[in-house]
Amino acid sequence: MSILLILALAIAATVSVALAQVPPEKQFRVVNEGEFGDYVTEYGATYRFIESSNLSFFAAPFLLLFYNTTPNAYVLGLRAGRARGDNIMHWVWDANRNNPVGENSTLSLGRNGNLVLAEADGRVKWQTNTANKGVTGFEILAHGNIVLHDKNGKFVWQSFDHPTDTLLNGQSLKVNGVNKLVSRKSDMDGSDGPYSMVLDKKGLTMYVNKNGKPLVYGGWPNHDFRGTATFAVTREFDNLTEPSAYELVLEPAPQTTTSMGGTINLNKINYNGTISYLRFGSDGSLKAYTYYDPATYRKWEESFSFFSTYFVSQCGLPSFCGDYGYCDREMCIACPTPKGFLGWSDKCAAPKTTQFCSGRKGKAVNYYKIVGVEHFTGPYVNDGQGPTSVNACKAQCDRDCKCLGYFYKEKDKKCLIAPYLGTLIKDANTSSVAYIKY
């Protein structure tokens, strides 16, 4: 009998440990209602404060809020920046951007330790799935990591494991976890957009997917990050007491093998860059922003841009000249047409695949020719396939109704099929010739 009693007590103790015990003073339930805040934020978003008498949702300069860019579609988001002297505050993490909530929705943390975002009628729209896993408290840490911790301070859940389009200082992408950043659809629409940056065993690669086929256009596709890519800000000389430069870097996992993958240095700044983030933008760009609190105005500064005059040409950004444009020396200079070049505007449009995929057999396909131009995938990551002939390249595009044109490198006899055109890069020194359907 004593053995059975001991066994029963052990089982009871195990159950009590497994059940989260959030003390009453750490529990909360807040309602998305009331007046909007007064200050300017990214995307022109309006926002509401989350307030509880027993808990803080602020860790300077980070603040958890409800925000929206369209009426009655709220996202639980982390904002970075202070109202004092700041021209605009930035959104650096979203909980539910693909599943917004409405008015009078609630955010709650109950005794069982599950953080839940629900509609007014109780329908759960987002949660941490941490019920009965030992959570005892909620906290926002100094670098913007939102955590649910157990009684020993160990993280049961953390927002750093769930990036959306942004990496904060110390945050990572992981091959065996969340391995990508996905752009917003637009500034007004925060749902998943067509651009992604994916970490795999080969490298960290940018893709655009506007027609069902991902196209590579940037990143570090042949760099071994050893399974983890961490955005970090490091001091140039840690042993100095006086100010020193700070470096924005992408760090691989610690070296455990003979792999040669090393740290990627993005930029160096001459002030404290501890509060920084790396953003994969709705236009497919990759930029870093740094917050410097002592500044009296414009505390946020763009501190790195992948597509720029100092890194990779802006003409390599697929969206730089809109859906279709001719780019030269970081400028959109023309709109290609069957009748020649016209003045560029954001209204320039490539041919629609629908006119080639109508199902009518025997319809002739025509092309117009542009000499000395490369596709945005060409100079950086993709030279095309070959060697092959220009006629074989044309035949391949003829057969594929989703092909909007092909690029043929006459010197190397390589063929690049283009299901999406975007920005075309002028290069008089290349043997690449574009043939665009019309």
Largest sheet: 5 strands, antiparallel
What proportion strand? Answer: 35-45%
What is the radius of gyration? 26 Å
Tell me, what's the shape?
globular
Distance between the first and last residues' Cα: 87 Å
Task: Report the strand count.
Answer: 33
Instruction: Tally the helices.
Output: 2
Helix percent reads under 10%
The assigned structural class equals mainly beta
Uncertain segments:
7-17
Mean pLDDT: 90
Structural commentary:
By secondary structure, the protein is mainly β. It is built from 2 helices and 33 strands. Strands 2, 3, 4, 5 and 6 form a 5-stranded antiparallel β-sheet that branches. Strands 27-26-25-32-29 form a 5-stranded mixed β-sheet, with no helix packed on it. It has a 4-stranded antiparallel β-sheet with strand order 1-7-8-9, with no helix packed on it. The protein is globular and about 75 Å long. It starts with a helix and ends with a strand.
